[in-house]
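The records we work with from here on pair a chain with its fold. Each token is a code from a learned vocabulary of local backbone shapes. A record is reproduced here so that you can trace the correspondence yourselves:

_____
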Amino acid sequence: MMSSPVVLALALSLVSAFCYAAAAVVQERTAAGTADLRGTLARGSWWWAVGLNASGALLHVVALRYGPLTLVQPLGALTLVVAVPLGSLVVRRRTSGTQWRGMALTLVGLTALLVATAAGHAPDDTLGTGEVLGVALVAFGVIAVLVRFASGGSGLGGLAFAAASGIASGVGSTLAQKLAVGPTPSWGVAVVAVLTVAFASGGLLLSQKAYRSGLGGPLALLTLVNPVAASVIGISLLGEGFQYGTTGTLIALAGAVAAARGVILLSRPQSHQERPGRRVSAPVRNQPRLPRPTRLLRAGFPSAARVRPVTVELGVELTGTSRTV
């Protein structure tokens, strides 16, 4: 059974995911109505998104105080599950069957991950100062490469910004855990606090640039990259893992595959066409209407009284006499 700290971490993660989802929808709508980042910063709706993101981040940090990275971070995928129907509601569009299947697969995958991780204990280990600096340096290098690729004018720029945002957010969560789990005031903790704020702010700005290409794809990739980055750090540096040995690892992998498939379905662009089998004919305006054959038969042919004779005079010299035809 799940312990009380893990249950609290689960509840906080759910509320945090809702805050992040609402913020993502507001960010996407703001990005669609502004030409650049400067115009975005001048809009009040973007600052509402900042407030929602800050609330989600605060709840996320508190959840990390009571649950391990391998549990709290995968629950971030619920952001996409909430954001997709919420975005459809905002634009008054029906949630498609593909999106419902994606949400179902994502929930099944998350359930499998919870089975393998939720019975674990609260975290009791954090990164050392040297490990923090090493993780920050590697993450900064990868983010710089992705941002440079995105700025090169490629059609995948939005996804590259989303991947960079996911890495920044995942690293920020990892560093925030060090602050949440009983930090001792020191210069090292101050450095971690500065890096946490830097990565969190960078993730927010990068996600705003990513949403300029839409909501589904960038949010889906960001949602996948974020827990992957944090889980890799947690497993490789903090010794976190899955329960039940090999069986738990297989369950977690199966859940990850199902969740990834669900995220892919949710990221597909939605078609506004009608359902198959329903033929839609668009009205054609300003086109001449051809008379039906029955109307021609009813009208009959023109009568002789309505036909005016045409006389053509031709001046032809025939044996000196002018004749009229």
